[in-house]
Amino acid sequence: xxxxxxxxxxxxxxxxxxxxxxxxxxxxxxxxxxxxxxxxxxxxxxxxxxxxxxxxxxxxxxxxxxxxxxxxxxxxxxxxxxxxxxxxxxxxxxxxxxxxxxxxxxxxxxxxxxxxxxxxxxxxxxxxxxxxxxxxxxxxxxxxxxxxxxxxxxxxxxxxxxxxxxxxxxxxxxxxxxxxxxxxxxxxxxxxxxxxxxxxxxxxxxxxxxxxxxxxxxxxxxxxxxxxxxxxxxxxxxxxxxxxxxxxxxxxxxxxxxxxxxxxxxxxxxxxxxxxxxxxxxxxxxxxxxxxxxxxxxxxxxxxxxxxxxxxxxxxxxxxxxxxxxxxxxxx
Length: 332
Known about the structure:
Blueprint: H1 3-10, H2 14-21, H3 29-39, H4 43-67, H5 70-73, H6 78-83, H7 92-103, H8 108-116, H9 131-146, H10 155-163, H11 174-187, E1 190-194, E2 205-211, E3 214-219, H12 226-241, E4 248-250, H13 259-272, H14 275-284, H15 290-300, H16 304-313
Parallel strand pairs: 1-3
Antiparallel strand pairs: 2-3, 2-4
């Protein structure tokens, strides 16, 4: 059928039919009904074809746009993300699309707006972290936390859990302890997520507010020892208990001018090992033997590895001394 005949049958100008045939004009619901009457093919079929056609045009345009950002995609720790099962084997523009899907944003511009201008990981600059790796690590934890069901945030219950946490540090195996801690924190409104480091993150943990009633504590297990895990966990939990709600990232060093970081650092340190008892032990025990450390840790109801870590940080023990009292955590 010629375009002119179809135009006569539909009572439409030939120019309009020509534009429809060449994809310049869309098939509207009204036109679809006219085509159904003139050709005996349902209006639903015509509208479906139109939707599919426009979708393909949009997808091709989007693919062209994605191809402009392949260099951006290559700045992420792709090998680590693939090893963790977070990213497939896509390359080129498809890789850009896969990363945008992972982050839950529609474009690189949107990624910059949410993960650079708005996100907490800007704080990681002081740790010489790669911002792309840090953003990916945070998103990994965020995605895991969003799948977890937790109660509404309960500051009173969380405080009670924190102040009574020391005996848990002595329990074994770690997998059972971690499950117990995770369940209790979920009842407090906190999702606990353990995600390994990604290359370039240089972070030990993060405390974030996903909603006003749901918090996330993410631990990297960077050093895989019990003293580091418990200190990092408490450090992040004290951030959540702080009166001012904000997101925090933590690496190896704490800026001397960061009052909030220094405060929660001291709170975590002193809760694990009360300062008065610690000073008395150090002053009364010139010979810090294995037995002395174990006995004092038992008195405090705390893991001996935590006490060793504290003594090493305060230079009462050499970094290589009594490390066998620290329990290695091979979780990942």
